[in-house]
Amino acid sequence: MPEQDRIIRLKTVLARTGLSRSTIYRKIAEGTFPAQLRISTNGAGWHESEINRWVDDPIRWGPEAEVKRSD
Fold it and tell me: Where, if anywhere, are coiled coils annotated (predicted)?
């Protein structure tokens, strides 16, 4: 069974990336950081796999880059 992709919140993203909140939102606007997902009326999060991909290689990360998963 494939592993589920968790949704993580801003506090976790800040800890994993070492970026500030304002830098994350600026990078989202520039297209150089994964966009957040709306998970409720007032809540948002990120796919953990996207944040991990960005942390592994922030220079080459791109929203059009496909993650190949084996089933």
Answer: none
Give the number of other Cβ atoms within 10 Å of residue 39's Cβ: 12
CA distance 58 to 23: 13
Strands across the sheet with 44-47, in order?
7-8, 44-47, 37-38
**For 8-53, what is each residue's pLDDT tens digit?**
999 999 999 999 999 999 999 999 999 999 999 999 999 999 999 9
Range of the domain at 13: 7-56
41 assigned to some structural domain: yes
Go through the chain and tell me how many residues it has.
Answer: 71
